[in-house]
Fold:
Amino acid sequence: MKPSIDITNVLLVARREIHQILKMKSFWLTLLILPVAFALGPIFADTLEDNEPTRVTVVDRSGGDAEQALEALFAAEEAQGLLRELSRYVRRYDLQHADPQAPWAKHDRWYTAADIIAFERAGGIEAALEKIDAVRPEGVPAFEPEETQYIFSPIPEALIAAEGEAFGTQARALFDADDDTAPEIVVLIGENYPANPRIQLFSANPPQGSFVTTIQEALTADLRARLLAAQGIPPANAAAVQSAAPIVAVDTPPPGGGAREALLVRSIVPLALAYILVMSLILSGSWMLQGSVEERSKKLLESLLACIRPEDLMYGKLLGSLSVGLLMILVWGACAGVAAYATHGVIADMIRPALDPVSSPGIIAAILFFFIAGYIAISALFVAIGAMVDSMSEAQGYLMPVMLLILLPVTFLIQTILAGNSGWIVQVLTWVPLWTPFTVLARLGMGIEWWEMVGSGALLATAIALELVLIGRLFRASLLASGQKPSFKRMIERLRGTPG
Amino acid sequence: MSVLQVSHLVKRFDNVVAVDDLSFTVAPGQIFGFLGGNGAGKTTTLRMVLDIIRPTSGTISVLGSAPDRRNAQAIGFLPEERGLYAGMSAIDTIVYFGRLKGMKAAEAHSRGMDLLARFDLAGRARSDIGDMSKGMAQKVQLATSLVNDPALLMLDEPFSGLDPVNQGLLEDEILRASRRGAAVIFSTHVMQHAERLCDRLLLLRNGRKRFEGTLDEARAALPARLIATAKTDLSQVLGVARAERGETRSDGWQDWTLHLSDGVDPAAVLEHCSSNAIALRRWDEHRASLHDVFVQLVGADPEHDPVAAEAAR
Structure:
């Protein structure tokens, strides 16, 4: 009869593994780097983000009022965007009662020029925020309007007299000059406009599509007004025709709602779990591998094997690796909790719907199962590698294919799920034990049938049992065989447990 | 009752027989020398006793039961290839191995500190192994094998790599363990240590036992060599297998080197000479040394060692 597992020795080995990893500087660096990166990320993003509005100069030599039309349209678009954002904010935090008649308290339509005029007449954003702040509960963040995207600047002297090719040369010279007041976009409307409807646009950087579309919209309206006037239609009639627009009623889901947005929100935690599982597995597996390589290279194994069964040594290493992984996740989770608490409503408001798909006791049990099973399944591969190699450089040869085998499908899986796709590839990944833990965890957000979860979990458990038997044999047979690379044939013999 | 009993032990690695029908017993308090060249099967036998590898056939009984890690609490083992965790302190290392052998942490710590004090390392108990000299680390490793006061202490080539001071310390520890009743087995191919320490010896060659017995029995296994000076032709004396003439002196005296027949006692030949009025001016008896026995029975260390290579796979 085979002797049973010696729990005391397994725990002793696990404790030593944990101590060894905790003494590594790389562990602490890795443990802290994620929270620090998350904390510093927004700061860097703010620093790197170009919040400065783009300076636009319109040179209208046709004698018309195209410049004013352009400025007015951009201003209207900014106001419409602001109104939309304010409306979403009010709806997210249920603040409509601040002024139920205000346009920003109504979410059932696409805002028109009339809404914008009403908004401006009521005092604009300042007046709206005053009303909202009066009823805003504690913990709800204040509304922060987005920065203005474009500002219109007067025509620089260099462009006033420039003609033809020289105009372009002067404009490009302005772009190259280190001057914070010089225009970044120059729109030139020629003398013969609208007879010659060609508009020239000089830009320091590739212009945004929305900018060009707005220019086109504004100038098209201006062009049509001039053409209608030329046809003898009174300007008032022409303006009425131009401003005629349908009222579009809109039924939008609340913030965080809607099929795609809801899927994204619901998938945040499951995808993060899958990703963290991969990350912590690779990290703790590598540390465990370093320990195994030390045991081999420092000729420690024979002393150890005189006191402990190879299987107990293997289980101890797996348990140590699992504990370190769980510790990392616990710390990262605690950091996320502290961040959520520190930022009050913002993150908590996002986290609440994100936690919905993973908050039932059954799902929590499933997460724990697939998390631990995934850890054991993959860590056992690292243990096997550690048993066969004498140095980390030798280990790299085995590590690379294992990493690719795990990382590539998981990266693909995360992208597929973010795209809302649950096609046959996701189904296949669910049922291949190597990828089952990551796939099931990642699919929790988009929904997975219970029978799939139970079936793939049972298959995974069976595969792990078989894997542990095979790797246990390989581990036992490989431990004392140092100084030579095992051939493929020899590895198969060890997996089969061929005596020798 | 014997502490270790090995009976008809065989270990094959593919087509190579590493240990071939080996039997021996080791009693409490006995110091048992396991002698043989490289690849003779010494380490393979010790690994089978420790249950690190399994025999092809034959039986092993350690303290009355089959090899098992449950016996670890009664066994101390010092492997030939030595090493410890570089990042662990000396005392933590000893406690770790003590606990793996089933000791309580406090007991292992107290015993570990006693050993470190005895090895003049008490002041370095909290030092990491990586910060110690090789000699210090070897003493810590010896302490890991002694921490549990083992009933069976097995040392595989324990003297290799030790400086003379540490060799002396190790000899003292072997004798100390024997005095408290432990059975001690050590493998070596350095004959001086075996001659000084062993109560009983086993010589192995290619996995087969070539000799087992006491030091005297080993030396008696080879015929003694005698140097004699006489006027008579000594080649005809009863019990002399072969006689070589040496220097001939002017007054008729002749030096002889005598090789006796197997099992003939040199004293009996001397007695025969006296009773037959053979005048002798010199009678020097040279008994075989353990080195002579080793070379005769085991031969020179093989350059190529297929068994060791196979065992390492």
About this structure: The interface with chain A takes residues 13-14, 47, 50, 52-54, 56, 68-70, 72, 75, 77-79, 81-88, 96-97, 99-102, 141, 144-145, 312-313 of chain B (CB under 8 Å).
